[in-house]
Design a protein that fits this description.
The chain has 17 helices and 28 strands. It has three domains: 3-74, Roll (Urease, subunit C, domain 1); 79-331, TIM Barrel; 386-571, no CATH class. The protein starts with a helix and ends in a 5-residue tail after the last helix. It is of the alpha/beta class. The radius of gyration is 25 Å and the shape is elongated. Strand 17 (395-396) and strand 18 form a beta hairpin. Belongs to the metallo-dependent hydrolases superfamily. Adenine deaminase family. It catalyses: adenine + H2O + H(+) = hypoxanthine + NH4(+). Its EC number is 3.5.4.2. This is adenine deaminase.
Length: 575
Protein backbone atom coordinates (compact mmCIF):
# COMPACT_ATOMS: atom_id res chain seq x y z
CA UNK A 1 0.00 0.00 0.00
CA UNK A 2 1.11 3.58 -0.66
CA UNK A 3 1.23 6.19 2.10
CA UNK A 4 -2.37 7.38 1.59
CA UNK A 5 -3.72 3.84 1.52
CA UNK A 6 -1.79 3.03 4.69
CA UNK A 7 -3.27 6.09 6.39
CA UNK A 8 -6.81 5.05 5.51
CA UNK A 9 -6.12 1.47 6.55
CA UNK A 10 -5.22 2.78 10.00
CA UNK A 11 -8.42 4.86 10.19
CA UNK A 12 -10.63 1.97 9.13
CA UNK A 13 -8.98 -0.40 11.59
CA UNK A 14 -9.27 2.16 14.41
CA UNK A 15 -13.01 2.63 13.86
CA UNK A 16 -13.47 -1.16 13.94
CA UNK A 17 -11.47 -1.39 17.15
CA UNK A 18 -13.40 1.48 18.76
CA UNK A 19 -16.70 -0.25 18.08
CA UNK A 20 -15.37 -3.44 19.64
CA UNK A 21 -13.99 -1.77 22.75
CA UNK A 22 -10.32 -2.17 21.80
CA UNK A 23 -9.52 1.51 20.98
CA UNK A 24 -10.49 4.81 22.54
CA UNK A 25 -12.94 7.24 20.92
CA UNK A 26 -12.68 10.99 21.40
CA UNK A 27 -16.14 11.94 22.66
CA UNK A 28 -19.45 10.43 23.72
CA UNK A 29 -22.42 12.81 23.90
CA UNK A 30 -25.03 11.07 26.08
CA UNK A 31 -28.64 11.67 27.06
CA UNK A 32 -29.89 13.11 23.77
CA UNK A 33 -33.07 13.32 21.74
CA UNK A 34 -31.57 12.91 18.27
CA UNK A 35 -33.23 14.28 15.15
CA UNK A 36 -33.22 11.79 12.27
CA UNK A 37 -33.56 14.02 9.19
CA UNK A 38 -33.98 10.99 6.94
CA UNK A 39 -36.93 9.45 8.76
CA UNK A 40 -38.10 12.82 10.14
CA UNK A 41 -38.34 11.37 13.64
CA UNK A 42 -36.72 11.95 17.02
CA UNK A 43 -35.27 9.15 19.14
CA UNK A 44 -33.39 8.89 22.42
CA UNK A 45 -29.74 7.96 22.16
CA UNK A 46 -26.11 9.00 22.20
CA UNK A 47 -23.49 10.01 19.63
CA UNK A 48 -19.93 8.69 19.53
CA UNK A 49 -17.27 10.87 17.89
CA UNK A 50 -13.74 10.12 16.76
CA UNK A 51 -11.34 12.02 14.52
CA UNK A 52 -13.89 14.80 13.84
CA UNK A 53 -16.63 12.42 12.66
CA UNK A 54 -19.55 10.54 14.07
CA UNK A 55 -18.61 6.86 14.30
CA UNK A 56 -21.63 5.43 16.11
CA UNK A 57 -25.16 6.10 17.25
CA UNK A 58 -26.13 4.75 20.67
CA UNK A 59 -23.03 2.53 21.04
CA UNK A 60 -22.75 -0.24 23.63
CA UNK A 61 -21.36 1.72 26.56
CA UNK A 62 -20.48 -1.44 28.48
CA UNK A 63 -17.54 -2.08 26.15
CA UNK A 64 -16.84 1.49 25.14
CA UNK A 65 -13.55 3.29 25.72
CA UNK A 66 -13.82 7.05 25.38
CA UNK A 67 -11.64 10.00 26.30
CA UNK A 68 -14.46 12.43 27.15
CA UNK A 69 -18.15 12.06 28.04
CA UNK A 70 -20.55 15.00 27.59
CA UNK A 71 -24.01 15.09 29.15
CA UNK A 72 -26.55 16.26 26.57
CA UNK A 73 -29.06 17.07 29.33
CA UNK A 74 -31.95 15.53 27.40
CA UNK A 75 -31.66 18.24 24.73
CA UNK A 76 -32.48 17.77 21.07
CA UNK A 77 -29.45 17.05 18.90
CA UNK A 78 -29.75 18.47 15.39
CA UNK A 79 -27.19 18.78 12.59
CA UNK A 80 -25.03 21.91 12.53
CA UNK A 81 -26.94 24.62 10.70
CA UNK A 82 -25.97 25.65 7.17
CA UNK A 83 -26.36 28.98 5.35
CA UNK A 84 -26.82 28.03 1.70
CA UNK A 85 -25.76 31.44 0.33
CA UNK A 86 -24.10 34.35 2.10
CA UNK A 87 -21.87 37.19 0.94
CA UNK A 88 -19.62 36.70 3.90
CA UNK A 89 -17.49 39.76 3.25
CA UNK A 90 -20.25 42.28 2.60
CA UNK A 91 -21.75 42.17 6.10
CA UNK A 92 -18.64 44.21 7.07
CA UNK A 93 -17.06 41.70 9.47
CA UNK A 94 -13.92 39.78 8.53
CA UNK A 95 -14.06 35.96 8.84
CA UNK A 96 -13.05 35.65 12.50
CA UNK A 97 -15.31 38.50 13.60
CA UNK A 98 -18.14 36.85 11.69
CA UNK A 99 -17.48 33.69 13.70
CA UNK A 100 -18.03 35.62 16.94
CA UNK A 101 -21.55 36.54 15.90
CA UNK A 102 -22.57 33.57 13.76
CA UNK A 103 -21.31 30.34 15.32
CA UNK A 104 -23.10 30.83 18.67
CA UNK A 105 -26.33 30.82 16.62
CA UNK A 106 -25.63 27.19 15.70
CA UNK A 107 -24.24 27.80 12.21
CA UNK A 108 -21.36 25.47 11.44
CA UNK A 109 -21.21 25.71 7.63
CA UNK A 110 -21.59 28.52 5.09
CA UNK A 111 -21.56 28.59 1.30
CA UNK A 112 -20.06 32.00 0.64
CA UNK A 113 -19.67 34.55 -2.12
CA UNK A 114 -16.63 36.84 -2.01
CA UNK A 115 -17.19 38.89 -5.15
CA UNK A 116 -17.50 42.35 -3.58
CA UNK A 117 -14.17 42.18 -1.78
CA UNK A 118 -12.35 40.82 -4.81
CA UNK A 119 -14.00 43.39 -7.06
CA UNK A 120 -12.93 46.14 -4.68
CA UNK A 121 -9.38 44.79 -4.74
CA UNK A 122 -9.25 45.13 -8.53
CA UNK A 123 -5.89 43.96 -9.87
CA UNK A 124 -5.05 42.74 -6.37
CA UNK A 125 -8.02 40.37 -6.46
CA UNK A 126 -5.96 37.18 -6.36
CA UNK A 127 -3.88 38.47 -3.44
CA UNK A 128 -7.05 39.57 -1.64
CA UNK A 129 -8.58 36.10 -2.07
CA UNK A 130 -5.43 34.46 -0.74
CA UNK A 131 -5.53 36.69 2.36
CA UNK A 132 -9.29 36.23 2.83
CA UNK A 133 -9.05 32.43 2.77
CA UNK A 134 -5.92 32.29 4.92
CA UNK A 135 -6.20 29.60 7.60
CA UNK A 136 -9.89 29.04 6.74
CA UNK A 137 -9.60 25.52 8.09
CA UNK A 138 -8.92 26.95 11.56
CA UNK A 139 -12.22 28.86 11.66
CA UNK A 140 -14.93 27.49 13.97
CA UNK A 141 -17.24 27.11 10.98
CA UNK A 142 -16.91 25.21 7.71
CA UNK A 143 -16.34 27.50 4.74
CA UNK A 144 -17.11 26.65 1.12
CA UNK A 145 -16.52 29.59 -1.21
CA UNK A 146 -17.26 30.59 -4.79
CA UNK A 147 -15.05 32.44 -7.23
CA UNK A 148 -16.62 35.66 -8.52
CA UNK A 149 -19.01 35.14 -11.42
CA UNK A 150 -19.30 38.90 -11.84
CA UNK A 151 -17.68 42.21 -10.93
CA UNK A 152 -14.10 40.93 -11.43
CA UNK A 153 -11.76 40.35 -14.35
CA UNK A 154 -11.90 36.86 -15.83
CA UNK A 155 -8.28 36.10 -14.93
CA UNK A 156 -9.06 36.75 -11.26
CA UNK A 157 -11.97 34.32 -11.39
CA UNK A 158 -9.81 31.70 -13.10
CA UNK A 159 -7.11 31.95 -10.41
CA UNK A 160 -9.56 31.90 -7.51
CA UNK A 161 -11.28 28.79 -8.90
CA UNK A 162 -8.07 26.89 -8.15
CA UNK A 163 -7.95 27.92 -4.48
CA UNK A 164 -9.13 26.18 -1.36
CA UNK A 165 -11.90 26.28 -0.13
CA UNK A 166 -13.46 27.33 -3.48
CA UNK A 167 -15.96 24.81 -4.87
CA UNK A 168 -17.42 26.67 -7.82
CA UNK A 169 -18.45 29.84 -9.59
CA UNK A 170 -20.48 32.55 -7.89
CA UNK A 171 -23.48 34.39 -9.22
CA UNK A 172 -23.34 35.75 -12.79
CA UNK A 173 -24.10 39.31 -13.83
CA UNK A 174 -27.56 39.37 -15.42
CA UNK A 175 -26.71 42.14 -17.87
CA UNK A 176 -23.83 40.11 -19.33
CA UNK A 177 -24.97 36.48 -19.23
CA UNK A 178 -28.31 37.35 -20.81
CA UNK A 179 -26.56 39.07 -23.71
CA UNK A 180 -23.91 36.43 -24.40
CA UNK A 181 -20.71 37.84 -22.88
CA UNK A 182 -17.55 35.93 -23.80
CA UNK A 183 -16.03 36.30 -20.33
CA UNK A 184 -19.11 34.59 -18.89
CA UNK A 185 -18.76 31.77 -21.42
CA UNK A 186 -15.15 31.28 -20.33
CA UNK A 187 -15.98 31.37 -16.61
CA UNK A 188 -18.70 28.76 -17.14
CA UNK A 189 -16.29 26.62 -19.15
CA UNK A 190 -13.65 26.75 -16.41
CA UNK A 191 -16.01 25.66 -13.65
CA UNK A 192 -17.59 22.95 -15.81
CA UNK A 193 -14.13 21.56 -16.55
CA UNK A 194 -13.34 21.66 -12.84
CA UNK A 195 -16.58 19.87 -11.98
CA UNK A 196 -17.68 22.68 -9.66
CA UNK A 197 -20.99 24.35 -8.91
CA UNK A 198 -22.52 27.50 -10.40
CA UNK A 199 -24.70 29.81 -8.33
CA UNK A 200 -27.84 31.19 -9.96
CA UNK A 201 -28.98 34.77 -9.56
CA UNK A 202 -31.75 37.11 -10.74
CA UNK A 203 -35.48 36.81 -10.24
CA UNK A 204 -36.52 34.11 -12.67
CA UNK A 205 -39.70 35.87 -13.72
CA UNK A 206 -37.53 38.74 -14.97
CA UNK A 207 -35.90 36.43 -17.51
CA UNK A 208 -37.17 35.42 -20.90
CA UNK A 209 -38.03 31.76 -21.14
CA UNK A 210 -35.08 31.12 -23.44
CA UNK A 211 -32.58 32.66 -21.03
CA UNK A 212 -34.23 30.82 -18.15
CA UNK A 213 -33.56 27.58 -20.05
CA UNK A 214 -29.96 28.64 -20.59
CA UNK A 215 -29.07 28.70 -16.88
CA UNK A 216 -29.83 25.08 -15.91
CA UNK A 217 -28.73 23.93 -19.37
CA UNK A 218 -25.17 25.12 -18.72
CA UNK A 219 -25.14 23.67 -15.20
CA UNK A 220 -26.31 26.41 -12.84
CA UNK A 221 -26.84 24.52 -9.60
CA UNK A 222 -29.31 26.64 -7.65
CA UNK A 223 -31.30 29.87 -7.55
CA UNK A 224 -31.31 32.25 -4.60
CA UNK A 225 -33.19 35.14 -6.18
CA UNK A 226 -36.91 34.50 -5.80
CA UNK A 227 -39.21 37.31 -4.69
CA UNK A 228 -42.75 36.04 -5.20
CA UNK A 229 -44.89 32.96 -5.80
CA UNK A 230 -44.40 33.04 -9.57
CA UNK A 231 -40.63 33.12 -9.10
CA UNK A 232 -40.79 30.04 -6.88
CA UNK A 233 -43.04 28.14 -9.28
CA UNK A 234 -40.70 28.70 -12.21
CA UNK A 235 -37.58 28.09 -10.15
CA UNK A 236 -38.62 24.63 -8.98
CA UNK A 237 -40.21 23.73 -12.32
CA UNK A 238 -36.90 24.32 -14.06
CA UNK A 239 -35.14 22.10 -11.53
CA UNK A 240 -33.36 24.69 -9.43
CA UNK A 241 -32.76 23.83 -5.78
CA UNK A 242 -34.28 27.08 -4.57
CA UNK A 243 -33.01 29.25 -1.73
CA UNK A 244 -35.39 31.28 0.42
CA UNK A 245 -33.34 34.24 1.63
CA UNK A 246 -33.93 36.20 4.80
CA UNK A 247 -31.14 38.75 5.08
CA UNK A 248 -32.33 41.13 2.36
CA UNK A 249 -35.71 42.34 1.27
CA UNK A 250 -38.60 43.23 3.49
CA UNK A 251 -40.28 41.02 6.07
CA UNK A 252 -43.39 41.07 3.87
CA UNK A 253 -41.49 39.43 0.98
CA UNK A 254 -40.20 36.65 3.22
CA UNK A 255 -43.70 35.95 4.47
CA UNK A 256 -45.05 35.92 0.92
CA UNK A 257 -42.49 33.25 -0.03
CA UNK A 258 -43.15 31.05 3.00
CA UNK A 259 -46.92 31.43 2.68
CA UNK A 260 -46.68 30.34 -0.95
CA UNK A 261 -44.74 27.20 0.01
CA UNK A 262 -47.35 26.32 2.64
CA UNK A 263 -50.42 27.20 0.57
CA UNK A 264 -49.21 25.54 -2.61
CA UNK A 265 -48.03 22.48 -0.65
CA UNK A 266 -44.73 22.43 -2.50
CA UNK A 267 -42.44 19.70 -1.10
CA UNK A 268 -39.94 21.41 1.17
CA UNK A 269 -37.21 19.16 -0.24
CA UNK A 270 -37.07 21.74 -3.05
CA UNK A 271 -35.93 24.49 -0.69
CA UNK A 272 -32.92 25.64 1.30
CA UNK A 273 -32.58 28.59 3.64
CA UNK A 274 -30.02 31.35 3.29
CA UNK A 275 -29.37 34.94 4.30
CA UNK A 276 -27.58 36.37 1.23
CA UNK A 277 -26.65 39.45 3.27
CA UNK A 278 -27.13 39.90 7.00
CA UNK A 279 -25.71 42.36 9.50
CA UNK A 280 -23.73 41.39 12.57
CA UNK A 281 -26.28 43.34 14.61
CA UNK A 282 -29.12 41.12 13.38
CA UNK A 283 -27.07 38.03 14.13
CA UNK A 284 -26.58 39.22 17.69
CA UNK A 285 -30.16 40.38 18.26
CA UNK A 286 -32.26 37.91 16.28
CA UNK A 287 -29.96 35.07 15.34
CA UNK A 288 -28.98 33.42 12.09
CA UNK A 289 -30.33 30.15 10.70
CA UNK A 290 -31.78 29.41 14.14
CA UNK A 291 -33.97 32.52 13.86
CA UNK A 292 -34.94 31.67 10.29
CA UNK A 293 -36.10 28.18 11.28
CA UNK A 294 -38.35 29.80 13.89
CA UNK A 295 -39.87 32.13 11.30
CA UNK A 296 -40.56 29.15 9.03
CA UNK A 297 -42.27 27.30 11.88
CA UNK A 298 -44.36 30.38 12.69
CA UNK A 299 -45.51 30.50 9.06
CA UNK A 300 -46.76 26.92 9.15
CA UNK A 301 -43.80 24.86 7.94
CA UNK A 302 -43.21 21.67 9.90
CA UNK A 303 -40.25 22.42 12.23
CA UNK A 304 -38.39 19.27 11.15
CA UNK A 305 -38.84 20.30 7.51
CA UNK A 306 -37.56 23.78 8.37
CA UNK A 307 -34.48 22.28 10.04
CA UNK A 308 -33.87 20.13 6.97
CA UNK A 309 -34.08 23.29 4.82
CA UNK A 310 -31.16 24.61 6.89
CA UNK A 311 -29.18 21.36 7.01
CA UNK A 312 -29.72 18.21 4.95
CA UNK A 313 -31.41 19.82 1.93
CA UNK A 314 -28.49 22.20 1.46
CA UNK A 315 -25.86 19.51 1.96
CA UNK A 316 -27.63 17.35 -0.62
CA UNK A 317 -27.92 20.18 -3.15
CA UNK A 318 -24.12 20.62 -3.03
CA UNK A 319 -23.56 16.83 -3.14
CA UNK A 320 -22.08 16.90 0.37
CA UNK A 321 -24.69 14.86 2.21
CA UNK A 322 -21.97 12.26 2.78
CA UNK A 323 -20.11 14.82 4.93
CA UNK A 324 -22.60 17.18 6.59
CA UNK A 325 -26.33 17.74 7.07
CA UNK A 326 -27.30 14.74 9.19
CA UNK A 327 -26.33 13.02 12.44
CA UNK A 328 -25.30 9.65 11.08
CA UNK A 329 -22.05 7.64 11.15
CA UNK A 330 -19.38 8.94 8.81
CA UNK A 331 -20.55 12.57 8.87
CA UNK A 332 -18.56 15.38 10.44
CA UNK A 333 -19.58 15.84 14.07
CA UNK A 334 -21.20 19.25 13.56
CA UNK A 335 -23.92 19.13 16.20
CA UNK A 336 -26.26 21.65 17.83
CA UNK A 337 -28.01 20.89 21.12
CA UNK A 338 -31.26 22.83 21.56
CA UNK A 339 -34.23 22.67 23.94
CA UNK A 340 -36.76 23.14 21.10
CA UNK A 341 -37.13 22.20 17.45
CA UNK A 342 -39.56 24.95 16.49
CA UNK A 343 -37.58 27.70 18.23
CA UNK A 344 -33.92 26.76 18.00
CA UNK A 345 -31.98 27.73 21.12
CA UNK A 346 -28.36 26.68 20.57
CA UNK A 347 -27.29 25.67 24.08
CA UNK A 348 -24.18 23.86 22.80
CA UNK A 349 -22.55 23.98 19.37
CA UNK A 350 -20.00 21.38 18.25
CA UNK A 351 -17.91 21.61 15.10
CA UNK A 352 -15.79 18.54 14.24
CA UNK A 353 -16.75 17.12 17.62
CA UNK A 354 -15.26 20.07 19.49
CA UNK A 355 -17.42 22.35 21.64
CA UNK A 356 -17.06 25.78 20.02
CA UNK A 357 -19.98 27.71 21.53
CA UNK A 358 -22.14 27.55 24.64
CA UNK A 359 -25.26 29.57 25.50
CA UNK A 360 -24.66 31.95 22.57
CA UNK A 361 -21.04 32.65 23.49
CA UNK A 362 -18.13 31.62 21.28
CA UNK A 363 -15.60 29.45 23.11
CA UNK A 364 -13.01 29.02 20.38
CA UNK A 365 -11.95 31.14 17.43
CA UNK A 366 -9.08 31.28 14.97
CA UNK A 367 -6.38 33.89 15.46
CA UNK A 368 -5.93 35.40 12.01
CA UNK A 369 -4.45 38.85 11.35
CA UNK A 370 -6.21 40.68 8.51
CA UNK A 371 -4.39 44.00 8.97
CA UNK A 372 -2.32 43.36 5.84
CA UNK A 373 -5.54 43.75 3.82
CA UNK A 374 -6.15 47.29 5.10
CA UNK A 375 -5.71 49.96 2.44
CA UNK A 376 -5.22 53.71 2.58
CA UNK A 377 -7.83 55.85 0.91
CA UNK A 378 -7.23 57.27 -2.57
CA UNK A 379 -9.28 60.51 -2.65
CA UNK A 380 -11.29 61.32 -5.74
CA UNK A 381 -13.67 64.14 -4.73
CA UNK A 382 -11.36 67.14 -4.80
CA UNK A 383 -13.35 68.71 -7.62
CA UNK A 384 -16.83 67.92 -6.27
CA UNK A 385 -18.92 71.08 -5.78
CA UNK A 386 -21.92 71.43 -3.49
CA UNK A 387 -24.21 72.58 -6.31
CA UNK A 388 -23.67 69.26 -8.10
CA UNK A 389 -25.78 67.71 -5.33
CA UNK A 390 -28.79 69.96 -5.91
CA UNK A 391 -31.85 68.14 -7.27
CA UNK A 392 -32.51 69.04 -10.89
CA UNK A 393 -36.07 68.07 -11.90
CA UNK A 394 -36.52 65.33 -14.46
CA UNK A 395 -39.53 67.32 -15.64
CA UNK A 396 -41.48 70.42 -14.56
CA UNK A 397 -45.27 70.54 -14.79
CA UNK A 398 -46.91 72.87 -17.29
CA UNK A 399 -48.03 75.26 -14.55
CA UNK A 400 -44.56 75.29 -12.98
CA UNK A 401 -45.78 74.17 -9.53
CA UNK A 402 -44.55 70.57 -9.56
CA UNK A 403 -41.33 68.76 -10.38
CA UNK A 404 -40.75 65.13 -11.25
CA UNK A 405 -37.86 63.61 -9.28
CA UNK A 406 -36.51 60.23 -8.27
CA UNK A 407 -37.63 58.68 -4.97
CA UNK A 408 -35.41 55.84 -3.75
CA UNK A 409 -36.69 53.38 -1.15
CA UNK A 410 -34.23 51.36 0.92
CA UNK A 411 -36.98 48.85 1.77
CA UNK A 412 -37.83 48.30 -1.86
CA UNK A 413 -34.43 46.89 -2.75
CA UNK A 414 -34.66 44.16 -5.31
CA UNK A 415 -38.13 45.23 -6.42
CA UNK A 416 -39.56 47.72 -8.88
CA UNK A 417 -40.29 49.89 -5.85
CA UNK A 418 -36.59 50.55 -5.30
CA UNK A 419 -36.99 53.75 -7.28
CA UNK A 420 -39.95 55.72 -8.59
CA UNK A 421 -40.43 58.91 -10.52
CA UNK A 422 -42.75 61.08 -8.41
CA UNK A 423 -44.21 64.56 -8.59
CA UNK A 424 -43.35 66.91 -5.70
CA UNK A 425 -43.92 70.64 -5.06
CA UNK A 426 -41.70 73.10 -6.96
CA UNK A 427 -41.39 76.62 -5.55
CA UNK A 428 -39.14 79.53 -6.45
CA UNK A 429 -37.11 77.32 -8.74
CA UNK A 430 -36.44 74.77 -5.99
CA UNK A 431 -37.63 71.21 -5.40
CA UNK A 432 -39.55 70.84 -2.14
CA UNK A 433 -38.63 67.39 -0.72
CA UNK A 434 -42.18 66.44 0.20
CA UNK A 435 -44.61 63.83 -1.15
CA UNK A 436 -48.22 63.42 -0.03
CA UNK A 437 -47.54 65.59 2.99
CA UNK A 438 -44.50 63.55 4.08
CA UNK A 439 -41.12 65.22 4.11
CA UNK A 440 -38.10 63.25 2.92
CA UNK A 441 -34.37 63.68 3.12
CA UNK A 442 -32.36 63.93 -0.08
CA UNK A 443 -29.99 61.39 -1.54
CA UNK A 444 -26.99 61.89 -3.82
CA UNK A 445 -25.27 59.05 -5.64
CA UNK A 446 -21.78 60.23 -6.56
CA UNK A 447 -19.05 58.69 -8.72
CA UNK A 448 -15.67 58.69 -6.93
CA UNK A 449 -13.23 58.69 -9.84
CA UNK A 450 -14.73 60.40 -12.90
CA UNK A 451 -13.43 60.09 -16.41
CA UNK A 452 -14.55 63.43 -17.71
CA UNK A 453 -17.74 64.79 -16.19
CA UNK A 454 -18.55 63.29 -12.79
CA UNK A 455 -21.70 61.14 -12.71
CA UNK A 456 -24.14 62.27 -10.01
CA UNK A 457 -27.75 61.21 -9.44
CA UNK A 458 -29.88 63.19 -6.98
CA UNK A 459 -33.34 62.52 -5.59
CA UNK A 460 -35.37 61.90 -2.45
CA UNK A 461 -34.82 59.02 -0.04
CA UNK A 462 -37.19 56.86 1.97
CA UNK A 463 -35.61 54.96 4.83
CA UNK A 464 -33.38 57.46 6.62
CA UNK A 465 -34.72 60.93 7.46
CA UNK A 466 -32.71 63.54 9.32
CA UNK A 467 -33.61 67.11 10.20
CA UNK A 468 -30.06 68.40 9.89
CA UNK A 469 -26.54 67.23 9.12
CA UNK A 470 -25.65 64.41 6.72
CA UNK A 471 -24.54 60.80 6.52
CA UNK A 472 -22.46 59.33 3.70
CA UNK A 473 -20.83 56.03 2.83
CA UNK A 474 -18.93 54.36 0.02
CA UNK A 475 -18.91 51.02 -1.79
CA UNK A 476 -16.28 50.12 -4.40
CA UNK A 477 -17.91 47.14 -6.13
CA UNK A 478 -18.44 46.91 -9.02
CA UNK A 479 -17.86 50.64 -9.45
CA UNK A 480 -16.60 53.10 -6.82
CA UNK A 481 -19.56 55.25 -5.77
CA UNK A 482 -20.72 57.17 -2.71
CA UNK A 483 -24.17 57.86 -1.36
CA UNK A 484 -24.99 60.80 0.88
CA UNK A 485 -28.22 61.53 2.75
CA UNK A 486 -29.08 65.00 4.03
CA UNK A 487 -30.98 68.21 3.39
CA UNK A 488 -28.28 70.73 2.49
CA UNK A 489 -25.94 70.38 -0.47
CA UNK A 490 -22.99 72.01 1.28
CA UNK A 491 -23.28 69.69 4.31
CA UNK A 492 -23.68 66.64 2.08
CA UNK A 493 -20.67 67.64 0.01
CA UNK A 494 -18.56 68.09 3.15
CA UNK A 495 -19.68 64.70 4.50
CA UNK A 496 -18.79 62.98 1.23
CA UNK A 497 -15.31 64.49 1.31
CA UNK A 498 -14.85 63.17 4.84
CA UNK A 499 -15.58 59.65 3.60
CA UNK A 500 -13.25 60.26 0.66
CA UNK A 501 -10.33 60.32 3.09
CA UNK A 502 -10.77 56.60 3.77
CA UNK A 503 -10.57 53.52 1.56
CA UNK A 504 -14.15 53.07 2.73
CA UNK A 505 -16.23 54.37 5.63
CA UNK A 506 -19.57 55.60 6.91
CA UNK A 507 -19.43 59.14 8.32
CA UNK A 508 -21.98 61.41 10.04
CA UNK A 509 -21.45 65.18 10.08
CA UNK A 510 -23.34 68.15 11.48
CA UNK A 511 -22.42 71.80 10.92
CA UNK A 512 -19.42 70.58 8.93
CA UNK A 513 -18.11 68.67 11.96
CA UNK A 514 -17.62 64.91 12.10
CA UNK A 515 -19.89 63.25 14.69
CA UNK A 516 -19.34 59.53 14.06
CA UNK A 517 -17.29 57.33 11.75
CA UNK A 518 -17.01 53.63 10.92
CA UNK A 519 -13.84 52.96 8.88
CA UNK A 520 -14.01 50.10 6.37
CA UNK A 521 -10.30 49.75 5.84
CA UNK A 522 -10.13 46.27 4.29
CA UNK A 523 -10.39 47.18 0.61
CA UNK A 524 -13.20 49.57 1.51
CA UNK A 525 -15.73 46.80 2.26
CA UNK A 526 -14.79 45.26 5.62
CA UNK A 527 -13.90 46.63 9.04
CA UNK A 528 -10.73 45.42 10.72
CA UNK A 529 -12.59 45.17 14.04
CA UNK A 530 -13.91 42.71 16.55
CA UNK A 531 -17.66 42.25 16.79
CA UNK A 532 -17.77 44.51 19.85
CA UNK A 533 -15.89 47.26 18.02
CA UNK A 534 -18.00 46.84 14.90
CA UNK A 535 -21.33 47.02 16.69
CA UNK A 536 -20.13 49.99 18.75
CA UNK A 537 -19.19 51.85 15.57
CA UNK A 538 -22.53 51.05 13.91
CA UNK A 539 -24.33 52.08 17.11
CA UNK A 540 -22.47 55.40 17.18
CA UNK A 541 -23.63 56.09 13.60
CA UNK A 542 -27.25 55.36 14.57
CA UNK A 543 -27.02 57.39 17.78
CA UNK A 544 -25.62 60.42 15.98
CA UNK A 545 -28.39 60.23 13.37
CA UNK A 546 -31.04 59.85 16.06
CA UNK A 547 -29.88 63.13 17.59
CA UNK A 548 -30.38 64.64 14.15
CA UNK A 549 -33.98 63.38 13.87
CA UNK A 550 -33.77 59.86 12.42
CA UNK A 551 -35.86 57.08 13.94
CA UNK A 552 -34.18 53.91 12.81
CA UNK A 553 -35.78 50.47 12.84
CA UNK A 554 -34.35 47.13 11.79
CA UNK A 555 -30.84 47.01 10.37
CA UNK A 556 -28.27 49.68 11.34
CA UNK A 557 -28.21 52.67 9.01
CA UNK A 558 -24.77 51.76 7.67
CA UNK A 559 -26.07 48.38 6.48
CA UNK A 560 -29.18 49.95 4.98
CA UNK A 561 -27.11 52.43 3.01
CA UNK A 562 -24.62 49.83 1.81
CA UNK A 563 -27.45 47.59 0.59
CA UNK A 564 -28.44 50.38 -1.81
CA UNK A 565 -25.41 49.83 -4.00
CA UNK A 566 -26.66 46.44 -5.18
CA UNK A 567 -29.85 47.95 -6.55
CA UNK A 568 -28.14 51.09 -7.80
CA UNK A 569 -26.04 48.80 -9.96
CA UNK A 570 -28.95 46.52 -10.87
CA UNK A 571 -31.11 49.43 -12.05
CA UNK A 572 -28.24 51.14 -13.87
CA UNK A 573 -27.75 54.20 -11.68
CA UNK A 574 -23.98 53.84 -11.93
CA UNK A 575 -22.20 55.03 -15.05
Amino acid sequence: MNALETQHYAKVRTIFDILHGRAEADLLIKNLNILDVHGETVYQGSILVHDKRIVALSPDESILKVREVFDGEGLYAIPGLIDAHIHFESQLAHPTALAEAMVPCGTTTIYAECLDLLSAAGEEGVEAATALFKDHDKLPYRLFAFAPGKKTAAHVTQAVLQMEPVIGLGEFEHFTYSSGDDDDFRKAAWVRAKGGFMNGHWGVTALSDMVLNYLPAIGVSNNHDVWNEDDIEKSIRYGFPTHIKFGVGSAEVIKVLLRAIVDRKWPTDNFMLCTDNISVERLLKSGHMDWIIGVCADMGINPIHAIKMATYNTARSFHMEDQIGSLTPGKFADIVLTDSLSRINPRYVFKDGELVAKDRKLLKNAEIDYSGMCKAGVPGLDTLRAEQLDIVPLEISADGTQAKVYLFDVYGRGHARFFQEVWVPYRDGQVVPELDGVRYSRISVVQRYPRGERHVVNGLFKGVRIDRGAVATFWPAPKPYFVAIGNDSAEMCHCLKQVDGYSGACVVTENLQQKAVMPLEIYGVMANMTVAELTAAAGAIDAALEEMGNRNEGEPVVNKLLSLFISLHRFRFMA
